[in-house]
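Need Chemotaxis protein CheY's 3D structure for a figure. Predict it.
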Amino acid sequence: MNDQAGRVLVVDDDETVRDVVRRYLEVAGFTVGLAGDGAEGLAKFAAHEPDLVVLDVMMPGINGLEVCRRLRQVSQVPIVMLTALGEEENRIAGLQLGADDYVTKPFSPKELALRVASVLRRARMPRPEPAAAELVDGDLRLQMKARTATRGGRELPLTTREFDLLAFFLAHPGVAFSRADLLEKVWGWDFGDQSTVTVHVRRLREKIERDPAKPTRVATVWGVGYRYDREQP
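Structure prediction for Chemotaxis protein CheY:
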C-alpha cells in the first residue's frame, strides 16, 4: 500500500458502501480506515488524523453534517460528503459547514476515487501569494492575506470556497465565466459536478447582494455562466 498517496477515513453506516469504497480507494493507492457511524468516525479521526474524510450525510446518531461541523472546529482536513439524490438542502448545508466536495448517491466508486484524489491534490497545493493585498468594490472589501471579507464594515461569514470564488470574481470584473471555467480556475477541478458552482454562487449572493433574488453583482449570463459586475458609483 502506498501510504504516501494519502490516508482516507470512510464514515458510512452502510457496510456494503464502506467495503466497495475501500476496495476502489485501495486500488488507487490510498490507505483506508473505516467507521460505521459518526461517533466512531470522530474517534478514529482523533486517533489516526487521516488526510481526507469521506463522510455520509444520513447516519443514525451523529449524522454527517454534525460530524462535519465538529471536524471543522478542530481541523481543515478535506471532506467529501456523500448525499442521496434530491438532498439539495444537505449538500448546501455541507458546503456551508466547510465540506470541500460532495458526491451524490448512487455514485460510481471509480468517480469517487478520482474525486478524492483531486480534492487531496488541491489541498496539498501551496496557496499562491495574492496579486493584490486588498480587493475592493464599493462597500465590499477583501483582505487577501488575512482572508477576511467585509461589507459595509461588517465581516462576512464566508466559507473557504465562497471566499475563493468572490476573490476570483473581484479580480476579473466584467468577464463571463462558465461553470466549468470556475471549477477549474477557482478550485483547480479538472472534472466534477458543476452544480457545486451553482450552490456556491447562490450562497455568495445571499451574503453580498442587497437583494439576492435580484442580484446586481454576480450576474447570470444565460447559456454561459456568471459574470461579476462592479457597483456603479
